[in-house]
Design a protein that fits this description.
- Two copies of one chain form a homodimer.
- By secondary structure, chain A is an alpha/beta fold.
- In chain A, about 40% of the residues lie in helices and about 20% in strands.
- The first copy, chain A, has ten helices and twelve strands.
- A five-stranded mixed sheet of chain A has the order 3-2-1-4-7, sandwiched between helices. Chain A has a five-stranded mixed sheet with strand order 10-9-8-11-12, sandwiched between helices. In chain A, strands 5-6 form a two-stranded antiparallel ribbon.
- In chain A, β9 and β10 form a beta hairpin.
- In chain A, α6 crosses α7 and α8 crosses α9.
- The two termini of chain A are about 20 Å apart.
- At the A-B interface, α8 of A face α8 of B.
- Chains A, B: It holds the Pfam family ROK.
- Chains A, B: This is ROK family protein.
- Chains A, B: Belongs to the ROK (NagC/XylR) family.
């Protein structure tokens, strides 16, 4: 009987990106029953945006016949603060900017009082991986998202680390290169994400092409992306292969320091760039083990996300709601 | 009545160092009622050592009239594993070496079944500071011990981070200098503790004296210690002052990365070198803030331990026992 009740409970996952917002209805097994997408960037005013989100939700709740069975809503959003439910100074959102938006409260009001949990996208991804994915059963791991930037979600003793202010886990902005490091969007230099994000990989390609005469299929391209570098590596292009070696080495060096902090069972990689795992895994492992204290050498796993990429953002956000 | 019962409960704190072992009886207010010291390094066999510890304890329990009122024993020991109660591969202990010693179990047997909690010294210091010292009321902070080495204890959400294996928080062995860094006792290079421990400061002094002709009172000394550098700084010696600036800068740079991990309210400094706070505070703050993401700039406190140094080790270890 208990199982019956559990199986008939659902959660909503909402992933807010700069351009689009994905949302879906998820069951206890991590199946997405129904999903939809709306634009994020056509709204200047958050009230109108929240109304549109609520309307879209109503539709997929009806479609999935889950009326009255929704346990809560989980939201992954840039600069989302778990403690307050606010989205703070999210300059990448057209309705965000230099202000504090009580997003969880607004959404709860528009959805008949459903409970809403909110955090940033990387923390949501960590909870998703722990609930449905590669980190099931793990109580200590670090999620690293390798996308346009480098995000992170840190899990200690089965719980996401939010820190004093709700914003812990900004490992993409730890220092990878101390002297003459690349300038980061955040205003600092040498940040991990300037080297090891999708944009960082493209930047490495452009720098190396400028600095050498080495032949490479990448030379013929106008606007190099990390996907181009990946395709070139698959075709055996030497420079492309070396770019992934360089990227993996920096990741591994930084991972060793992360391990010294929280002694995780594993580091879980997710995001577009993590697709290049056949080129990243070995250099990451080699550099990480070379920089670990003896007691951790060859003991820390590097694993790749097991969530279907099209569902991952929704699943991650939805997993937060099970904890409400 | 409840207060009465509480005030009549005591805990034992034991701090195991390579040379000596300090132990004391502590009340709920952090007063050390009675304490004693025995040698650690005259025993090759852990059984004999544990018997000696138990005998010394019996004596101070009698002295403080706390028979039958001991709630438990907390132990701070190198390579102490909180999860298992074992001391693992502690090469600095004459009876430690390449083996796993079930220390908590052994001590419990010899003390009539008292409960024993064990962790490493830096974690014990963090619990002590949270219970009796500068971190009272804080739920998120990082303890950094600046002694012969650099140790750390990380507190997240009111609990020490032990990680998957019990050994989390080795921030002294994160990388401070990536290229041509100093060789560390751990076998790696560039570790924070090769620069910012007491021995690291002395090493900086020797290096700088070798590399330049700059006049300094330190030139006249045979075997420079960090204390010599501190005394010279107090006398206005320019090189000594610059050594602390250099040390504080490296600490601040590394602290910025630690903040990106766990977003602590404060970083608490403890240990012999922390006595040089008048020379370390400003350079730490400047370098930390220059390397923090904007949202954390000027918001993270650097505070110094408030525990009396002669009692601190015992207090830290004893605080563990309140949680038993």
């Amino acid at each position: 009987m208990d199982t019956d009740i559990l199986e008939k409970t659902y959660v909503v996952g909402i992933d807010i990106g700069g351009q689009t917002t994905k949302m879906g209805i998820v069951d206890t097994r991590g199946q997405v029953l129904s999903q939809t997408v709306i634009r994020t960037d056509t709204y200047d005013d958050v009230s109108l945006y929240v109304e549109e989100v609520a309307a879209a939700l109503e539709k997929i709740i009806r479609e999935s016949e889950s009326e009255g069975k929704i346990r809560g809503i989980g939201v992954g959003a840039p600069n989302g603060n778990y403690y307050t439910g606010n989205i703070e100074n999210a300059v990448n959102l057209s309705w965000g900017g230099q202000k504090t938006i009580p997003f969880a409260e607004l959404l709860s009001q528009k959805t008949g009082g459903l409970k809403v949990a909110l955090t940033n996208d990387a923390n949501a991804a960590a909870v998703g991986e722990m609930t449905y994915g590669a980190a099931r059963g793990m109580k200590n791991f670090i999620m690293i998202t390798l996308g346009t930037g480098v995000g992170s979600g840190i899990v200690v003793n089965g719980e996401v680390v939010y820190g004093h202010d709700g914003f812990a886990g900004e490992l993409g902005h730890t220092c990878a290169v101390r002297h003459n490091g690349r300038v980061c969007n955040c205003g600092k230099t040498g940040c991990l994400e300037t080297y090891c994000s999708a944009t960082g990989v493209a930047r490495t390609a452009r720098e190396w092409l400028d600095m050498s005469d080495e032949p490479s299929v990448l030379r013929s391209l106008d606007n190099i992306t990390s996907k181009d570098v990946y395709e070139a590596a698959k075709d055996g292009d030497r420079m492309a292969l070396k770019i992934f070696e360089f990227t993996g080495k920096i990741l591994g060096e930084c991972f060793a320091d992360f391990v010294a902090f929280s002694a995780p069972e594993a580091i879980v990689l997710f995001g577009g760039l993590a697709r290049a795992k056949e080129y990243l895994y070995e250099p990451i492992m080699t550099a990480m083990n070379a920089n670990l204290l003896h007691m951790w050498r060859n003991k820390i796993k590097i694993v790749f996300s097991q969530l279907k990429e099209s569902d991952a953002a929704i699943l991650g956000a939805s997993a937060l709601a099970w904890e409400l």
